[in-house]
């Protein structure tokens, strides 16, 4: 069956303008429907979800109005907004509740404390791989000697050494294939 060039053109227009077509559906149509449904069912969690969504939608709209010129330089912005609003809207993710509880509500409850948290800069340099003292064998040995004394540490080493010698003399071989003295 030959393809109709008119159908191809319509499909191309739909694909090119996906964000323009999907954004109103995701940001307005579905939330309006779900909000009315939540009002009619008188479900408090659903009411909170959609009230929270509308607060966040208003903040996003204010952000867009304020920064419209710089946002024009980011062609990916409409797609980021679409995915972000999908995260806010879809009940599987419950994004609106998360954003509200962790960002909006603390600011509303205590603005002074919330702004302090936002502008807090740690004084220490962040280390991606912090050294844990528990994993360091030398630190563990030093702690053991501080708690039990050097004589107890030496006794422990001698005891372990004699235990290993006893195992090898009885024919119990505990070698691994990557040990230097392993015999094939």
What is the multimeric organization of the chains shown? single chain
Strand content: under 5%
Shape: elongated
The helical percent reads over 70%
What is the C-alpha radius of gyration, as a whole number of Å?
Answer: 32 Å
Our measurement of the CA-to-CA distance between the termini, rounded to an integer number of angstroms, reads 70 Å
Structural write-up:
This protein has 184 residues and is mainly alpha-helical. The chain folds into 2 domains: 14-118, no CATH class; 131-184. The chain is 71% helix and 0% strand. The chain has helices spanning 5-16, 18-41, 44-66, 68-71, 77-89, 95-109, 111-118, 137-148, 150-169. α2 (18-41) packs antiparallel against α3, α2 (18-41) packs parallel to α5 (77-89) and α8 crosses α9 (150-169). The longest helix has 24 residues, at 18-41. It is elongated and about 85 Å long. InterPro entries: TB2_DP1_HVA22 (IPR004345). This is HVA22-like protein c. It is a multi-pass membrane protein. One of its GO terms (biological process) is response to abscisic acid. Keywords: Membrane, Transmembrane, Transmembrane helix.
What does this entry show, briefly?
The protein is an all-alpha fold and 184 residues long.
Sequence-ordered SSE layout with sheet pairings:
Blueprint (H helix, E strand, L loop, with lengths): L4 H12 L1 H24 L2 H23 L1 H4 L5 H13 L5 H15 L1 H8 L18 H12 L1 H20 L15
Note the main attributes of this structure:
single chain, 9 helices, 2 domains, 71% helix, 184 residues, mainly alpha, elongated
């Amino acid at each position: 069956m030959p393809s109709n060039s008119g159908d191809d053109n319509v499909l191309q227009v739909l694909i090119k303008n996906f964000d323009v077509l999907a954004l109103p559906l995701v940001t307005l149509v579905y939330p309006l429907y779900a909000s009315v449904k939540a009002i009619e069912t008188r479900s408090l969690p659903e009411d909170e979800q959609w009230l929270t969504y509308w607060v966040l939608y208003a903040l996003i709209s204010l952000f867009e109005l304020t920064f419209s010129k710089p946002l024009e330089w980011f062609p990916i912005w409409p797609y980021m907004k679409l995915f972000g609003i999908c995260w806010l809207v879809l009940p599987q993710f419950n994004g609106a509740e998360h954003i509200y509880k962790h960002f909006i509500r603390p600011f509303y409850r205590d603005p002074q404390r919330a702004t302090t948290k936002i502008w807090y800069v740690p004084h220490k340099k962040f280390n991606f791989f912090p050294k844990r003292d528990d994993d360091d064998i030398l630190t563990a040995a030093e702690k053991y000697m501080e708690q039990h004394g050097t004589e107890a540490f030496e006794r422990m080493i001698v005891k372990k050494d004699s235990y290993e010698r006893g195992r090898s003399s009885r024919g119990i071989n505990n070698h691994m294939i990557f040990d230097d003295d392993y015999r094939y």
